[in-house]
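Intended use. Records like the one below are meant for learning the mapping from a protein sequence to its folded structure. Do not use them to infer anything beyond what is encoded.
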Amino acid sequence: RAAKFIARHQLAAVGMIALLVAGTLFVTLRQTQKREAKQRAAAVQARADAAVVQQDNEQLLYAISLFQGGPTTLAEAAFSGVQGIVGESAKGDSNDEDGEESIALPEIGTPTGIGLTVVEDYYLSVAPNDWPPEPASGDDAGRHLYAAVLHWLDDEVVEARRLLASYIDLEPNDFDALQLYAILACLSGHFDEVSTAGNRMAMFPGHTVDGAIWVGISDFLLNRPKQALASLERALEIDDTRDLVRVLHGLSAIPIGKTEVAMQDFDAVSTRDPESVPAMLGRTSALFASGRYDEAIPVATRVLDLSSAGHSRAHALALRGDCRSTLGDHEAAANDYQEAIDIEGQTLTLMVKKATAQYQLINRKRIARQQTEPQATGDAPAGSPQAQKENQQPVGPLFDFLNRRPKQGKSPQGDLEFPFRKIIPTRDGR
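Structure written out for the chain above:
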């Protein structure tokens, strides 16, 4: 019948076959589109799930059971464990943006961290105006220099340093280019190259002081404070009018315990400029190193009240947070660390300090609740030998917790309770 129908109605048969083929193609296309849509949705969901896991991993910082002690002790205890959790979400990797190995930059709120900010301010204070000139046609060396400055202004420090190195190979006697190279080496963590640039600067007539300053900066950033102090003292003997050099001299004195020398430097700068942010940050750091936390907090607060503080606010917040945490005001300390994170991003040490402060606050509330309601909570009575032992010992071994070995909120020995029962999965789903 089909053959007879096709023979009698050839046009209609062709139309039906075409319609059937078109319908088949349409259905196939729709199925393909639906499959691709499902794949795209699955990819979007996978990215969303990864973001949730990442957020959970970061929130795990607040559930870490840390050893009791001051913020420095806690940060040291937690550093390697938290690094494994946070991973790429925290700043401070040792690679540059092009994969080049570099030295990790100093932490916010430390003397060397403050010093790096001061070094950048110092360079801006001595850099020549309207430099470099726009290169003329055919000036290959000038184009390298001009491009290096543009990359630096765009915060592309690694590429700027590479281009500037090419320029210096062509024009080794450009003093201003050497100073720019020194600051780019500082900002990219190549502190040893700063010393090389400083030694070359010292060979230029009339620039002995500049060479001593940059060599001192290199030693300071490489955590060689005694050598830095000696180089900066030589520089100040030649020219004692550079306030930021005196601030760096004072910051170099703090790590070796010469806080009185440091305070004299900061006082000298503040006498000439009462609103010198670097001098106030240095004073705060010296007071903290001396254990004078109550005196350090108002100085840090004064920095925060100045509109000229800029990114230096992060240093003041971190230092004030350290002081408040040491004095037991953990809630205010956690707020200071969070504000510093908002400015500088999720640096590992700031995140650990914030997690530490929040945990100490939670633990203090738990102890207070145990003391007021010992029978209701089932804990040992306050003041008993058992309660004192529990308050003195760590609430849980950090690395046991990170390795997911504790079960039901207990350590493997079963004698230490964790403050959080929920186990947040890691990136691989465990």
